[in-house]
Amino acid sequence: MDLTDLLQMGAKIFIESNRSGDAGSGLDLQNLVSAFTGLTQGGGSNGIDFGELMSAMNSGGLGDIVSSWLGDGDNAPVSPSQVTNSLGADTISQFASKLGLSNDEAAGGLSDALPAMMDKASSGGSLLDSIGGVSGALNLASKLFGK
Asked: Does the predicted TM-score (pTM) go above 0.85?
């Protein structure tokens, strides 16, 4: 699965999670993919920086949760408030404003989409490529587990 497919999958999950009420009715897939790429400083127009996202989530105390997304087992859930605390209220606010959503709706959608996106990104090594190969993974692991 390439990055475009991954972002589109995440966008679809995000839209599905915001179907209740009117929140998801006006979401455009392309705008959502663009908003996803802006979640990280390193993403820019080139995509989303999963290493940076994982580091932010770990700094927010979610290392065990993120680890479950990278493994072969079930993905541990993450709450909207945990997403907001990890990524920062400003990041969530900017993401939400790009989509015309409330911060709560944006964080709720991200809490559904991010685990699935990271799970798929880690399948088959594409996440390794996005974080700089084996040396990037070792560096990230040292940050995640404090070694």
From this structure: no
